[in-house]
Design brief:
With 322 residues, the chain is of the alpha/beta class. The chain is 36% helix and 14% strand. It is built from eleven helices and nine strands. It has a seven-stranded mixed β-sheet with strand order 5-4-3-6-7-9-8. The longest helix is centred in the N-terminal third of the chain and has 23 residues. It is globular.
Length: 322
């Protein structure tokens, strides 16, 4: 039999058509078999179900409701309860003051006799730092630093390769989390207080295993950013409760110097608590002053923590021209 098209068309016999279909079927069978036996790594169940994002399975930054529920489940499963006003007992419970007294009296934890007592550590850490007295410098829980990090990192869509500058990083209550997340050399800070810097270098970075991240932390004041170099531009510049203690005139000097270091359009400056350096000028004058610097006010944010009794108010600015 034959299938015929008028007008001198192509004639195709049924046997040829059948063989063509069978050939195609065999080809598709072997193709499917080869793909199904591929040794390519399969997507993880978490990635397949969530598609990324989230602090837990997706590996994101911000704490999620699922994370909170997991913590609650673990507390319930272990039957844990906080007991109020009960002296905690341990092997040798000591207050920070008592720990510091022990460190000073017994030369830390060294059991060496002189002259070897001072030779067991390459860089002995001051006792005040070992008992973490600097964690009480801030008037609020040390753990709030994690909350600040989560809010700012999410706000600017932070990536490991982003570059961050903190004005007044203190003992790295917030900075530690940025340093841990970012690639080496991507976190910079200007800090004036010597004791805070000692705590950062001698205790916080070593105790968190972050010395290899090589953050650029510079002692300086008066908004002098020259030590960071002229070629550094930042995705995020932030000041947490710093501008509250700086004269308005100096804040404006700092903003003028920072504009050129902020990435145009995408980069952000965040200032916490209030912007009295701006509001004291009046709304119209403030806007005019910002515009003259190439800055634009974006929004006010009130951020509540899912984990801690902590919140802060943040004001967001961006550079609107290159």
């Amino acid at each position: 039999m034959a299938s015929q098209r008028g007008g001198g068309g192509v004639v195709v016999t049924v046997p040829v058509l059948v063989l063509s279909v069978l050939g195609a079927a065999v080809f598709l069978f072997f193709l499917f078999f080869s793909l199904s036996s591929c040794s390519c790594p399969a997507a993880s169940p978490a990635a397949a179900s969530s598609g990324g994002g989230g602090a837990g399975a997706g590996g994101g930054i911000k704490t999620t409701e699922a994370d909170i529920e997991w913590v609650r489940d673990q507390i319930r499963a272990n039957g844990l309860h906080m007991q109020d006003n009960v002296l905690r007992k341990g092997i040798n419970p000591r207050t920070r003051a008592q720990q510091l007294e022990d460190l000073n009296q017994f030369k830390g934890i060294s059991h060496y006799e002189e002259p070897d007592a001072s030779n067991h550590t390459a860089l002995p850490c001051p006792g005040e730092l070992l008992v973490e007295e600097h964690h009480s410098y801030y008037g609020e829980p040390w753990a709030g630093g994690r909350d600040v990090f989560e809010f700012l990192a999410e706000a600017v869509h932070l990536k490991p390769g982003s570059r961050v500058l903190e004005i007044g990083c203190g003992t790295l209550r917030v900075g530690l989390h940025f340093i841990s997340y970012l690639d080496p050399d991507r976190f910079h800070c200007l800090e004036r207080d010597e004791l805070s810097l000692m705590a950062a270098f001698r205790y916080e970075l070593p105790s968190r295993g972050l010395l290899h991240k090589r953050p650029l932390i510079v002692r300086g004041e008066d908004m002098d950013f020259t030590k960071f170099g002229s070629g550094s531009t930042y995705d995020l510049i932030y000041a947490s409760a710093v501008f509250l203690h700086v004269p308005d005139k100096l804040v404006w000097v700092g903003l003028e110097r920072l504009v050129g270091k902020l990435k145009p359009h995408e980069g952000r400056i965040f200032v916490s608590h209030n912007v009295k350096f701006c509001s004291r000028l009046g709304g119209e004058e403030c806007t005019k002053r910002l515009t003259s610097l190439g800055l634009e006010y974006v929004d006010k944010h009130t951020h509540d923590s899912l984990l801690f009794n902590h919140y802060e108010i943040w004001f967001e600015f961006k550079r609107f021209k290159a």
